[in-house]
What we know:
A: alpha/beta; Rossmann fold; six-stranded mixed sheet; B: mainly alpha; ABC transporter involved in vitamin B12 uptake, BtuC; 4 strands; about 5% strand
Amino acid sequence: xxxxxxxxxxxxxxxxxxxxxxxxxxxxxxxxxxxxxxxxxxxxxxxxxxxxxxxxxxxxxxxxxxxxxxxxxxxxxxxxxxxxxxxxxxxxxxxxxxxxxxxxxxxxxxxxxxxxxxxxxxxxxxxxxxxxxxxxxxxxxxxxxxxxxxxxxxxxxxxxxxxxxxxxxxxxxxxxxxxxxxxxxxxxxxxxxxxxxxxxxxxxxxxxxxxxxxxxxxxxxxxxxxxxxxxxxxxxxxxxxxxxxxxxxxxxxxxxxxxxxxxxxxxxxxxxxxxxxxxxxxxxxxxxxxxxxxxxxxxxxxxxxxxxxxxxxxxxxxxxxxxxxxxxxxxxxxxxxxxxxxxxxxxxxxxxxxxxxxxxxxxxxxxxxxxxxxxxxxxxxxxxxxxxxxxxxxxxxxxxxxxxxxxxxxxxxxxxxxxxxxxxxxxxxxxxxxxxxxxxxxxxxxxxxxxxxxxxxxxxxxxxxxxxxxxxxxxxxxxxxxxxxxxxxxxxxxxxxxxxxxxxxxxxxxxxxxxxxxxxxxxxxxxxxxxxxxxxxxxxxxxxxxxxxxxxxxxxxxxxxxxxxxxxxxxxxxxxxxxxxxxxxxxxxxxxxxx
Amino acid sequence: xxxxxxxxxxxxxxxxxxxxxxxxxxxxxxxxxxxxxxxxxxxxxxxxxxxxxxxxxxxxxxxxxxxxxxxxxxxxxxxxxxxxxxxxxxxxxxxxxxxxxxxxxxxxxxxxxxxxxxxxxxxxxxxxxxxxxxxxxxxxxxxxxxxxxxxxxxxxxxxxxxxxxxxxxxxxxxxxxxxxxxxxxxxxxxxxxxxxxxxxxxxxxxxxxxxxxxxxxxxxxxxxxxxxxxxxxxxxxxxxxxxxxxxxxxxxxxxxxxxxxxxxxxxxxxxxxxxxxxxxxxxxxxxxxxxxxxxx
Lengths: 595, 296
């Protein structure tokens, strides 16, 4: 625990607050420059920018961190706006506008703070229900659910006239004077967005964005990470909706259409959706650009909107084609602070944990349609042992790994870790039980720094493997020879280093067993030989047994205590490395002769 | 009984147009994993081409050809200008240029022509009706259904019998392998965009026959329904897109018919979207799982 908790709550809050304060101060200075020379129209634009900023930060928390695109966030902002309107419009005005308002709302009149809280609560409660479906679905299905939600809420607002007065909207909401409270809200939203990115749930969400397969295989559940991000984003968009209605004094469905959703998405992605700094920059660029182009139009003509639309289209297209990661990419004030003010981790003495559980698979059968991928395969790894799996392409080696780690449910057989049955368990549960893996085709969290790839998994270990001694992230990086590259994005490493990083990342789970899928693939002979020592060193650090697939027979022979040979889904030989190499059935399977 | 039949005819007429658009969206998703939110802008392109020619008193049948040709050209051009650059990006990243193009299209028509609705004259016979056993059949409903069937039959033929069609289906089945094909992937993807443009052009002819107007936001009304139809059917599944389109058209007409009289049209839409949300919650992959056996 010690090494992980070095970067504690206080440090994380301090970084979030510092980054937020700097960004807010820059914005405030720019706002002063802009409004100093203009009239009340400019004040209003700054207010609009701040409300948009809170909305975009809400989008950033969910979309930016999880990588799941949502059009539906505006629907919850709209729900919050109507919630505020219904409880804050003075009683007499409300009686005139909404004579048939249900459930005794007609007599309610709350002050701005209580009304804002009520509005946010409406968004969060609605969002908590819908979010379950969105977080479960993920991907394109989640996007489509959010699109449908946007339209359902839009239609409901337009048609539930007793409550909303239809398409015309509600007016007479008490307008808040001044803009100090709006700046305060924006600062709070910045702190929340920064803080979420620093939080455990936030870092898990980011890992799921980077790789939907690797994250669960290392103990990070997709649902929990996405749902957490969704709920936090609901608070922010609810706040923005609640504030917008009190800035303008009225609300109507035109403020919450798909067109507006696209505008806000453009703000998010133009600056760079992965970071809060990017979201802020995008909001400023798009708001300023839209306003500048609006002034090119002739306000007396119908086509006042054409220039802003032209600008939006060109800006979005240009950024997506030339800089798909946004103007800032991963350049981020918060990340800079994290690098700059990282506490040096102490070298903790830690004894390799004592393990006793055995990982075993028995009688594993897997069929894909009519194709038999595995037929009665079995394998057993004892604590501290290294077992190698060899076999020609298509023998079912990786499928066996997928069964062991919960990615593929076997049609027959059982998987056990000690006394615990893991057959058909979800990948994140298998990982938390103590089985970590690497992937044949490299599944790193490519946009994240090398260090974070390992650290986020150490965080999983800290949460779900509490019985274990803390993982020393720096020691793992050193064992992988990556200390000097710790701040580089993982995707920019060369092939060998990426393989070594995947190994270190899996070891960070402090697993009882490490499953390595072709760790020397694509490496030179020298690198492959060095890998023997690296695998041994890291396995010893965390006290893990190893199950390793590889084509390099020299590597397998040197590293393994025991070797299993697979062909066409079944075991054809097993025993000591030399015995298996000498087995005629193995030679036949590799050379393709009839044995 | 006659209401039922009337509804079926209306629903198929509307659904056929959705099906043509959805098929194009599904086709493009199949070859490059792009959900093309700019697809319905091809209708707008066709509409302005027709409007321009109609000003010069051109015969309706030539207009129809011009609508289809302009949609094909625009579809291929947009792929070259925008989507080719982001071909290897994630589906999320590719969505954004499609939104940008949709937005640009709206703005460009406003700048180049006018933000106002432009009306031109459609075929005089479009609103002719026949009464058969108490059912009033509009000629254009029948024509829409007939043309849709013909085009779908042609599509089935193209995708099972021609080298191009088989290459596209191969790409839709194994996208990564298609990428590895290198130069050939360019041709296949260009071809898929051309064919999607053709389908959108035919849909545009059907739409403009009913209401011969051109306005910048013409495509927007059709886009969502088309995307929804494609997604209901399971993106990448060609038969799914057709069934999704027809199901959506029928669902709309029947809901409108059976919800209490006086229910606003918007509420019907809300109902359709609520059903769609439930659908995705229950079956995130759409109604039809994408498997090669189910493809046309």
